[in-house]
Design brief:
By secondary structure, the chain is α/β, with parallel strands linked by helices. The protein is built from twelve helices and nine strands. The protein has a six-stranded parallel beta sheet.
Length: about 260
């Protein structure tokens, strides 16, 4: 079935699945998931265990999966994170779809999740195809406004060649950059992940794999949304306790692991 979405907005069930009344259960489940990951348990089995115990729906499990990382990964990412205001006069390399779809979702009222590493991620899934939505132009404009405010010297956008419509999006970004006088370059490459992981300069992404290996990164989307879309729907998992069960005496899902 062709993708006919006009907005990068919420899933029909999100208002129920991510209602404020769900936050305590989601945060407790997330704490258990991180507890397991910190002790070497694999993500798929840990997510199933926690999801089953707390009777989480598929999208709730997806939110936890995209937000989780080990404590070691957290410290590793933090050690290479650069403050956005340190970007003045420097080039910035963007994981194009990763940054753009998050801002589109923020503008479209979609659910955003702030992970354990404080990186902001959306819940959208392109499945190899990108479709321009009503928020696309506004999202590019917002990114341009933010990069100009930060004083970024040049923005290098990388788009995925295997994703359909990358050529059309690249053309739109170039046209908007020329119209506003932004110093932007847009490249379509086979795998932005590898390019960004090997980049010696600061990059902007929330992709967990890239964050584990890049030389330096800035939490651009979180700053942009906080700065320009303060009413965005953000579910915050960044303040999960280090060892929740030790602080509260609550039984962890790990206690249900088979011996």
């Amino acid at each position: 079935m062709p993708d006919r979405r006009q907005h990068r907005g919420p899933h029909p069930e999100d208002h129920e699945l991510f209602a404020p009344s769900q936050y305590p259960r989601l945060l407790t489940a997330f704490g258990d998931l991180c507890w397991l990951l910190d002790r070497g348990y694999a993500l798929p089995s840990s997510l199933k265990l926690v999801g089953d115990r707390y009777q989480l729906a598929a999208r709730q499990r997806l939110a936890l999966e995209r937000s989780a990382c080990t404590r070691e990964e957290l410290w590793n990412r933090r050690s290479r994170q650069k403050e956005v205001h340190s970007l003045c006069g420097l080039p910035l390399y963007l994981d194009g779809y990763n940054v753009l779809t998050t801002i589109e979702a923020a503008l479209g009222g979609g659910v955003l999740i702030r992970g354990r590493d404080a990186a902001l991620r959306d819940m959208a899934s392109m499945h190899g195809s990108y479709r321009k939505v009503q928020e696309t132009v506004a999202a590019i404009d917002l990114i341009g406004k933010g990069l100009a405010e930060l004083g970024v010297s040049t923005a290098h956008w990388y788009l995925d060649k295997p994703v359909s419509n990358s050529g059309r999006l690249a053309k739109l970004i170039r046209e908007m950059a020329a119209e506003h006088g932004w110093s932007w370059q847009v490249e379509i490459v086979q795998s932005p992940d590898y390019v960004l992981m090997e980049c010696p300069d600061v990059i902007a992404t929330a992709d967990s794999v890239i964050l584990n290996y890049c030389a330096g990164w800035a939490n651009l989307t979180d700053w942009l949304v906080t700065r320009y879309v303060p009413t965005a729907w953000v579910v915050d998992f960044s303040r999960v306790p280090e060892d929740d069960e030790n602080k509260s005496g609550q039984q962890s899902s790990a206690d249900h692991l088979p011996s």
